[in-house]
Amino acid sequence: MVAGTVSFGLMAVAIRLASAQLHAFEIAFFRAFFGLAFVLPLLLRHGPGLMRTRRLGFYVMRCAIGMVSMLAGFWAIVHLPLAQAVAISYSTPLFVTLGAVVFLGEVVRARRWTAVLIGFAGVLVIMRPGAASFSAGSLVALLAALASANAAISIKFLSRSEHPDAIVIWTTLLWVPMAALPAVLVWVTPTGITWLWIVLAGALGSGGHMLWTRALKLADASLLTPISFLQILVVGVFGWWLFDEAVDRWTCAGAAIIFAANIYIARRETRLARHAVTDREIGADIPTPP
């Protein structure tokens, strides 16, 4: 999880460096294009049978939502202070909780609703609507978080019948043509060191995604969620070093509030999942009456 989190943080830095020459939409295309090159070895490992699916339409819908998240997220990384853009992105789990109620029929009780409301209060602290320092660009970052939450919920549906590596390959494969159209509208052929930044964006993005999914297989979300906030530290340091960006107290305070809300939600979900498993195991030991 540490390696995946650092990879995502460095991807954000590579995106900002590439933005000196390229539009955020073109960077998104190259992230998908080079990301595909780095995930294709999964197909060699599993064989072409991995790509068989009856859910192609659902993949297309999931990838379209994910593309909105990517385009909006990359735009925010380019136009907002790095730490602020990343901090707002951590509202995604809050939207996932809301979506799980609406789309998955999950039951969320008072304490988790309270954590969600506190988390969104943290988002408002970062964005400061009505203040002189408010940036409309922060709404784009919030859109990216909302779209990312919807994409995460769609993955929950797909994971019921699809192999995790198949989801990664299909997603990246479909992102390439989807990202091509907005990229063509703002196309500038990369030159010089910009090629390094866009290749790194693809490698770090795909590598971080694979590390993240594997971490979630090895440990509970309640343990891993605190580690994921290391990304704010990574982009904060590089933002200060490379782009002379200071992390203001409002971003720190809002990020801390969102952090606390996400920790509570993750631990609560893990505790409930363990209780559900225990109840099933106890039920399995009770003999069925004749």
UniProtKB/TrEMBL annotation:
For whether the record's keyword set contains Electron transport, the answer is no
Membrane topology summary: Multi-pass membrane protein
From the Swiss-Prot or TrEMBL record, state where the protein is found. Answer: Membrane
Q: Where is the EamA domain?
A: 2-127, 137-264
One GO location term (cellular component): membrane
Query: Which parts pass through the membrane?
Result: 28-44, 56-77, 83-105, 112-130, 136-155, 167-188, 194-212, 224-243, 249-266
Output the Pfam families linked to this UniProt entry: EamA
Alphabetically ordered keywords of this record: Membrane, Transmembrane, Transmembrane helix
List the InterPro entries. Answer: EamA_dom, EmrE-like
Name it.
Answer: EamA domain-containing protein
Q: Which organism is it from?
A: Arenimonas composti TR7-09 = DSM 18010
State the taxonomy lineage.
Bacteria, Pseudomonadati, Pseudomonadota, Gammaproteobacteria, Lysobacterales
